[in-house]
Every structure is written in structure tokens, then in C-alpha cells.
Amino acid sequence: MTRHSSLSSTPCGSLKGTFKVPGDKSISHRSLMFGALAVGETRVFGMLEGEDVLATAKAMAALGAKIHRDDDGVWHVEGRGIGGLCEPEDVLDMGNSGTSARLLMGILGSHPITTFMTGDASLRKRPMGRVADPLAEMGAQVSCRSGQRLPLMVRGAATPMPIRYKLPMASAQVKSCILLAGLNTPGETTVIETEHTRDHTELMLRHFGAEVRVVQTKEGRETTIVGQPELVAADVLVPSDPSSAAFPTVAALINPGSELRLPGIGMNPHRNGIYITLKEMGADITLENERTEAGEPVADLVIRASKLKGISVPAERAPSMIDEYPILAVAAAFAEGKTVMHGLGELRVKESDRLSAVANGLKACGVTCEEGEDFLIVEGNGSAPLGGGTITTHFDHRIAMSFLVMGMAAQQKVTVLDAEAIDTSFPGFATLMNGLGAGIS
Ligand code: S3P
Q: How do strand 66-69 and strand 75-78 relate by DSSP bridges?
């Protein structure tokens, strides 16, 4: 991957049209992993073909699954069955993708094989102790570089032990890692969370025939996987990604006269915090044709340019919009008044330290903001910020897209560095946005 190529976004007029947002990243990863563990052939419709998901596809193929994409864009995964993965001959490269690395470590933790794993410069900085620790309790051996970083080695347990594990942080990746290790573990493995994170793993495991029980107790939400089921191949329909959809949504809200329709957006209640928040800020967003597709709630979104006002976003909402704070901060820069965002500690360990990357980007565009250890306050005055900044993205796709959206409606163009990072989650972003009237080049 070449680095340092920049993109600039110039103030454009209104955005209009219908826009097919690519498939959900979280669901795409899981469809490949669970398909590889199922017996039979899983077909995946609408899969995100971004670099992160392609890293998962390559890894699952190296572990023995047969994976191919047909001419109609449907992905076919011939699974090995639980416990049936084989030792890869080479190091698995998870690229930029924390979800690939952490979920796969769970699967490997209860397979009696030895695997080496690495990633790009950003992923090699991210903490892996949060998954290595519970996997060690289950009997896996995980040896990481200092600071519990990648590259690392997983030697899966030959006789894994089920655990009951209380999550020390709100993380669907850690929850999923443990549940996936529990798949090839006799008995029942339970994860307890005090904040409800995205539940795509639970929903899709059930879709493939596993028994997943969820109960609410005094300790929190307890999710239990009954070990060693036979997963049966199933078709997966991937909805459009609500996290990716947030970028055109905010672009339409802040460009006067805009009207966009985004069909088939995933509206899982543990992912839709950004839409609730934007509506509280005064956004004109309508949900049409609400329906359920392959177990996931989906709707068509209609977004019209709106006058936004600053609000306080409660910390409890963070798990349902954890990836959306960068673009929310851009919306807040156009709103009238202060937007206060709490509970952002996890943003420090994403593809970049997103809290400081956002704050620095806003300041470079003339926006007043305050960065705290786990909060961000953005002050808008109800008109377009100055813009004109050059943004260091730290190779973080969501920082890149957020500031390109800023440039579409700021007074002066905004330039983002390392814009190729966008391909990890939203290939074709610039072309699609330009098709609606944006000026990204
Ligand atoms: C994801 C969970 C979240 C999110 C990431 C995708 C998943 O990470 O930020 O983009 O697919 O489970 P954390 O579990 O670290 O919060």
C-alpha cells in the first residue's frame, strides 16, 4: 500500500441523490469467520470488499477454508467445521484491522495449532492484552511483543477450559473473541458486560445454529455460548454499514439544500447511536421501510440539510456509536452551541488516538474545542467553520473521511493526508460522494 497520498475536499453546493453505502464491516468479517467454521457452503451477499475484510478472507483461506467471489459479487465460503482449521504455513497479516486480529485470536485460542500474526504500523500499536488475558485463562498460550502488541503467536489450547469473564472495558471485539474461543470449548463460556456493545456475533452465531443465551443479571448482561455445537452453513445478507453511512449523512445535513436517500442501512439498536444523537441535534433524518433482513434491522434513510444545535451526549451511548465520534465532532462544528461528548476513553486505542486526532484536526480548521482524557467539547456558532487545514490522519480511515466531509461545507478546502486508509472500510468513497455533488480530488 502506498502512503502519503492526500485528498482535498472543496466547499460544494447541495448534495442530492440516492447512494448505496457498502456492506457492514463488522457483519462482513463475521460472515467469513463463521462460514469458515460451519459445515457446508455459506453464501455472503453484499459483503464489504474493503481491505480489512479482505485481510480476514485471506486469513481464513490460509487456515483451510475455501473462499471465492463469483461474477455476481456473491462470496462463497466452504467451511472446515468447528475445530477443523489447519495450521497456516506463514504469518497471518491482519493489515489495519483490529476486528480481524482480535476475533481470529479467539477462534485460534481453542484450536490446537500454532499461528503467528502481524499487522500494519497502526495495528501493531494497539493493545492485545485485552484478548490475550482471557484466552490464557482458557488455556491458550499467547506470546506478544512488549506492551502486549503484535506481532504475536497464538498456540491454541488442546483442552480448552470454559470461563466466566467480566469485560473490563466496553468492547464487542473482546466479547466476540471469548465467545468464539468458547465455540470449540466443552461446556459453557460466559461473558458479562455492564455496557451493551454490538451483538452481531450473538445474532449470527444463532443464525448458524449455535445456542447463545442472554440474560440480564445484577452483574450485567450475561452472554453464554454452549460449546462444540455443529455450525451449519447459512446465507448471510449484509446490510449497508451504518458507520459508513454516517459520513454522507453528516455531509447532507451541513450542506444547505441537500437531500439524500441511503437505502438498506443496518439499524441494529447497538449501532444506531449516531442517528439518535443527530436527531437530538435537530437533524431531519427519516427512516423508511423499516424491516428485518437475515436477523438484522434495516431501514432506508432520507436525510435533509438541517440547522443543528449543540447537545450533551451521554457516556452510556458511547458503545452504540463508538466509531462515529469523529464525524459527530464535524457535525458539532457546524452546530449552534456546545456539543459535549463523554465516555470517550476507548477512542484513544482505535486505528489512531482518535480523540487527539479529531481535536487537532478541528483546531487546524479553526474550530474551538477542548480535549479531555475521555471527553471532547466542540463549540460551534451555527455557521461554516473556516476549514483550510491539512489533517494528519495517522492512517485512520474515519479521521480521513470525517475531515473530507468538513471540507465539503467549510469556508476553505480541507486536505487530508494518507487518504488511502479510506479503502480499509469504504472503497470508492470519493467517487461516490463526487457523484452526489462533492468536490474531492
Ligand atoms: C467492532 C467493535 C468495535 C468497533 C470496531 C468494530 C466489531 O471495537 O470500534 O470498528 O466489529 O466488533 P471495540 O470492540 O474495540 O470497541
A: antiparallel
